[in-house]
Structure formats: C-alpha cells, structure tokens
Design goal:
The protein is built from ten helices and four strands. With 290 residues, it is mainly alpha-helical. The chain has a two-stranded antiparallel sheet with strand order 1-2. Strand 1 and strand 2 form a beta hairpin. Helix 4 runs antiparallel to helix 6, helix 7 packs antiparallel against helix 8 and helix 8 packs antiparallel against helix 9. The longest helix is centred in the first third of the chain and has 26 residues. The termini are far apart.
C-alpha cells in the first residue's frame, strides 16, 4: 500500500467547526452557505447593471424576489429531503419535526439533510408565486436566477466537503486514482463534493456564460441550466456514495440523485419544447383604407 499524503489525511486534521459563538458551534458549511447566498445576489445585481435591457428587472424587485426565492429553496430542500430520503410517513404525521434543531435529549444539533432537487421545486414554486403576485416576467427571473446560481453553488459543495458529509465512493488503495482519495473511517473515498463543485458549478457557469451570447429568447437560459446541471450531476453521482437508506436502483444501478437528474433533464427539455413551439402574440392588422 502506498504511503498516504497530507491530502489523503485531510479530514484527520481539519475541524468542520470554524468557531463557537455564545455556546453555538458555527460550522464552515454555514459560512460557505451564507457566502453562497451573498455571491448569488452579487452576481444577479451585476447582471442587472451590466445588461439592463436583457432582463428589465429593477433592483428593488430583485431584493424582494431574493427573499422569496431563498425561503422557497430552504423549504423545498428540507421537505424534499425528508420525503425522498428520510422517513416520509413519520414527518407527514409529525410535520413540526421537519425543522426541529434539537434532538430527543433537547440538545441543539442543528438541521441536517437538504435535497438539491427539492430545493429546485421550492425555488420554482416561490418564483411562480412571486411573479404572479407582483406581475413580473417569470422567464426573465428564472434566467437571471439560473445564471447567478452556479458559481454560488461552488461554495455550497465546498461547504459539504469541509463539513465531512456526502462522501464519495470507495477507491481501492492500489488504484492509480488513490492519490485523489480522502481517508474516511479507514477507507479512501473520492472527494465527490469537489467534483460536483467543479462540474455542477464552474463548468455549468462557463456553459451559461457561453449560452448567454446566443440564447436571446426568455427562458432558454433556464433550459441550458436545467440540462447542464442534470448532466453534470448524473456524471458526478458515479463518484458519490448513495445514501445508505436508498442504495441503487435498477439493472444500471442508478442512485436516487441520478434518477432525479433524469427527471430534471426531461423537465428542462419539455420547457424548451414549449418555448420553441410557442407562437408569438397575435398582432392586430390595421385595415387599409380604401
């Protein structure tokens, strides 16, 4: 067996807790999450200033929408997790436990377990409701948000890595890829969180920046993001360990993340079809005077 490097032993010396404040432990993950929110808002604000005609959204409306979207993401991500990955029956009969940060002994342990795909659903619901109530252009808000998400997403996945969670699959010690692995409970595992940060964050952002030059119709950027993220997540799942309570499905051994990514890809494809076949609004023709 090859000698383990400092990188392989990263978790042996890294504490996921950044500091304590008034008795509460502040994790690096929490700091990364807050940083991701601020970065997404900054990118969205920059896009509005740089391309005002493209989006046509006022800064005040963006600030209000940001709150709506974040609430939708948090609710959707948490509810999606307990229904998909957790004991859905228990939480449906004990809904107050979904956001309970205390354990059975009354100790504050925080809230763990959020589903990205559930967050997407919550985000979409919040965006639709906001745009309907405020009479705002739905597709433009979706385009702005999906362009602002990928780089912020990078911080989120780095936070997962620093928080010692969402581990990758086991790498054999004699594998040529062993140098990539991080030791977890005596086993080398892929740093799949960082793979996701790169593919689902940086690569998808580059794809969005490229598509921005060509996708002029409202909604097309959202399609690019949906398909791009779904493909990137599908690939990354081959390096990520499936949740123990879920396992793998079908003859292809797909994880739940891959199944949900397929659903997301199909949904984005349906949106593209609707937009592509959408007829422009009818314009009344002026009658020629005889």
């Amino acid at each position: 067996m090859r000698e383990l490097s400092a990188w392989n032993l990263f978790y042996e010396s890294f504490d996921p807790i950044a500091f304590e404040l008034f008795g509460f432990k502040v994790h690096w993950y929490g700091l990364c999450y807050v940083g991701a929110l601020l970065l997404a808002l900054f990118i969205a604000s920059f896009l509005l200033r740089r391309f005002p005609a493209r989006f046509g959204i006022e800064s005040k409306s963006l600030e209000s929408y940001f709150v709506w979207a974040e609430v939708g993401v948090i609710l959707g991500a948490r509810i999606g997790y307990v229904l998909i990955y957790g004991d859905g029956v228990y939480y449906l009969t004990h809904p107050w436990q979904i956001f309970n940060p205390f354990n059975a002994q009354g100790e504050f342990v925080g809230i763990s377990g959020f589903s990205y795909h559930g967050g997407v659903i919550g985000f979409l619901v919040a965006t639709i409701v906001f745009c309907r109530l405020k009479n705002q252009p739905l597709l433009r808000y979706l385009d702005l948000a999906t362009f602002s998400i990928p780089l912020a997403y990078v911080l989120g996945r780095i936070g997962n890595f620093l928080n010692h969670e969402l581990f990758g699959r086991v790498i054999e010690a004699d594998s040529v890829l062993a140098f990539l692995g991080v030791l977890v409970d005596g086993e080398l595992r892929y740093p799949s969180q960082l793979f996701e940060a790169f593919l689902e964050g940086i690569v998808v952002f580059v794809l969005m920046a490229w598509a921005f030059r060509f996708c002029k119709k409202d909604g097309y950027l959202s399609v690019v993001y949906g398909m791009g993220y779904a493909l990137a997540r599908f690939v990354c799942e081959f390096f990520r360990e499936a949740d123990s309570q879920m396992g793998y499905y079908g003859t292809l051994g797909l994880s739940m993340g891959q199944i949900l990514s397929i659903v997301m890809f199909v949904g984005a494809g349906l949106l593209f079809f609707l937009l592509y076949t959408q007829k422009p609004p009818n314009k009344r023709r002026k009658k020629c005077k005889k």
